[in-house]
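Section 3.1: Structural characterization of target chains.
Under the original work plan, the team committed to producing a structural model for every single-chain target entering the pipeline before any wet-lab resources were allocated. The record below documents one such target. The sequence was received from the expression subgroup and is listed exactly as submitted; it comprises 215 residues.
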Amino acid sequence: MIRVAIVEDDPLIRAGVAAVLGAQPDLEVVGQAADGDAAVALVDGCRPHVLVMDIRMPRLDGIAATRAVCSGELAPPVLMLTTFDGDPDVLEALRAGASGYVLKRNPDDLAPAIRHVAAGDVWLDPAVAGHVLSALAALPTPGTPGTAVAGLTPREREVLALLAEGLSNAEMAQRLFVGVGTVKTHMSRILFKTGCRDRAQATALAFTSGLVVVR
């Protein structure tokens, strides 16, 4: 059973999302919150496997809330909800640590998206994937290896260092006392944030950045 928590300021949308997910035999809604300020406490309180988060909310928006959640020790993958397929904040949300996004007008995509990010994969809604990928291609390449690593959370740096030691996902999970899916999520975020194409390039980055020193 995949445990899901929802952060959405609109009570009607929040109730609708909960109803859609509650009808799935393998999904369980274990918590809800009305704004980004409550996101971290919600995660700490109900330990969801996936956090579904609206991007645009009062007080603390979904981007800032995602950044706060993803900096935690046992951060679940975050799936962003957005209304517009041209939302410029989607890219920033992914850079903050989100594992994907889905459009609110496509409720049938929500359950599959949750299953994908729970397994450690990234979900990009087809309607806006092209926009995001084009924006990523237009971004300047990181200036130095150290700059690329600086954007990682402490846990992501820890995972990158273990990767450089040659550990598999299963071995990392055992070392960190987390699930393999959590390790896969961290790896997806590392590759996205650093611009590395694959695990081999990420391993090289761990050494060239000085994160791991050969003795």
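The CA atoms of residues 65 and 85 lie 21 Å apart.
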